[in-house]
Amino acid sequence: MSGYQYYEFQAIDRPLTDQEQRTLREYSSRAKITSSRFVVDYSWGDFKGNASEWMEKYFDAFLYLASWGTHELMLRVPRRVLPLGTAKVYCAGDFASARAKGDYIVLSFRSEEEGGEWIEGDNETLAALVPVWAEITSGDLRALYIAWLGCALHGELDDGEREPPCPPGLGKLSAALEAFADFLRIDQDLIDAAATASPDLVAIDDDALQRWISALPEGEKTALLVRLAVQPT
């Protein structure tokens, strides 16, 4: 298929093994592959792999851009920190969906805007969105609520369907959540209107926070450090 397409996968919770990198290389001779990333773009032709299957097996984040207006993001989070039932309350359509695979939940977000503005080379978006993964794994549901707003905006909710709980802090988004909303083309005015029902974030007791961090698996501690490192100073 002609037209520009950009694919980027990122492993956060664990690095890819040498064997896994060799397996992925079989799908593309020109992709950039490291222990944490797979990146390839096309001006002609199509991706030979299956992004959904790769997310289930290898990666924690995936971004896809196409010059005809498609924006897609997938995030894989541990099931122990986000039950499937909770995810489905917010990810309730084609715009945002959730599925379980083993010990993980795969969240999919897809925005289509035919004829939307396209800036070739403007594809360094995943780095700005990866902190959303860390926010979700730490129990922050604001990204899922923003995705639910997208489902509502695109008419994907049943009549009479109840609004899910509005998480605290919607009125003060992180830089990553702002990038997430922008990537999915969710109007800020819509978020601001929803934020009127969102309580402020509550400060966490220092001792309780230390106990919680000490009990976290190493992968989740790494995710929190990534989130902290990318916040603007």
Describe the strand arrangement of the main beta sheet, using strand numbers. 2-3-1-4-5-7-6
Report, as a whole number of angstroms, the end-to-end distance: 42 Å
What is the number of strand segments?
Answer: 7
Strand content: 15-25%
Q: Assign the structural class, choosing from mainly alpha, mainly beta, alpha/beta, alpha+beta, or little secondary structure.
A: alpha+beta
User: What percent of residues adopt helix (DSSP H or I)?
Assistant: 25-40%
Give the total of domains: 1
Radius of gyration: 18 Å
Q: How many DSSP H or I helices?
A: 9
Mean pLDDT: 88
Biggest β-sheet description: 7 strands, antiparallel
Indicate the low-confidence ranges by residue numbers: none
Order of helices and strands: EHEEHEEHEEHHHHHH
Shape: globular
Q: Could you provide a short overview of the structure?
A:
This protein is α+β, with helices and mostly antiparallel strands and 233 residues long.
What does this structure look like?
The chain is of the alpha+beta class and about 230 residues long. It has one domain. Helix 4 crosses helix 6. The longest helix is centred in the C-terminal third of the chain and has 13 residues.
Write the layout of secondary structure elements.
Elements: E1 2-10, H1 18-25, E2 32-33, E3 37-44, H2 51-57, E4 61-66, E5 70-78, H3 84-90, E6 96-101, E7 104-112, H4 126-137, H5 142-153, H6 175-183, H7 188-195, H8 206-214, H9 218-230
Antiparallel strand pairs: 1-3, 1-4, 2-3, 4-5, 5-7, 6-7
